[in-house]
């Protein structure tokens, strides 16, 4: 193992949540008079914190989203997670191997702590992540693509940035990890490698990750 810490993005990397959340986000924005397709939601918001949704809508339309937008959206998303969410195929295999090898790992997500917890519980991944392994954009002033979240996670885990590898599937996340001085492995199951410029390696099946980490 060439790294002292593996930092996972959450949505789309550990839990297969991006199709669910972007479907619901596109529908809710459209309902509010901001027509948005699923593809546009993936393009504009995948991997970002909620403030980016507010910022882009206001920048494009001059209008603010309702004050209760986040609460309503998360209520819908969490209900859908309980019904539909599954782990990314191969994620549990990776976590089992890292644990067996004694390799430290954590999650650093643009989502809220509540979203991470609900997602892990719904997908059956909660046993792998205690509070000390979960970091959210809520913990820092700026979300991805700023490097703050990844730097904060590394500091809390006691590992220098250059000894970390980030597993990401979004352009914003890759930019954040590169800015933090960390290697990035781009997960291309939903995002073409061309959109993850800056990643050191690419793979499209999570079951490949253990071998890549030891290569």
Please, could you describe this protein's structure?
- The protein has a six-stranded parallel sheet, covered by helices on one side.
- 43% of the residues are buried.
- By secondary structure, it is α/β, with parallel strands linked by helices.
- The chain has helices at residues 18-31, 38-45, 50-61, 69-84, 91-101, 113-123, 148-157, 171-179, 209-214; strands at residues 5-8, 105-109, 134-136, 164-168, 183-187, 201-203.
- The mean pLDDT is 95.
- The longest helix is centred in the middle third of the chain and has 16 residues, at 69-84.
- It is built from nine helices and six strands; from the N terminus they run E-H-H-H-H-H-E-H-E-H-E-H-E-E-H.
The gist of it:
By secondary structure, this protein is α/β, with parallel strands linked by helices.
What's the helix and strand layout?
Layout: E1 5-8, H1 18-31, H2 38-45, H3 50-61, H4 69-84, H5 91-101, E2 105-109, H6 113-123, E3 134-136, H7 148-157, E4 164-168, H8 171-179, E5 183-187, E6 201-203, H9 209-214
Parallel strand pairs: 1-2, 1-4, 2-3, 4-5, 5-6
Observed structural traits:
215 residues, alpha/beta, six-stranded parallel sheet, 9 helices
Q: Give the fraction of residues assigned to helices.
A: 40-55%
Largest sheet strand order: 3-2-1-4-5-6
Specify the overall morphology.
globular
The count of helical stretches stands at: 9
Strand content: 5-15%
For the CA atoms, what is the radius of gyration?
16 Å
Low-confidence stretches: none
| Average pLDDT | 95
Order of SSEs = EHHHHHEHEHEHEEH
**Structure classification:** alpha/beta
Distance between the termini: 8 Å
Instruction: Note the main sheet.
Output: 6 strands, parallel
Number of strand elements: 6
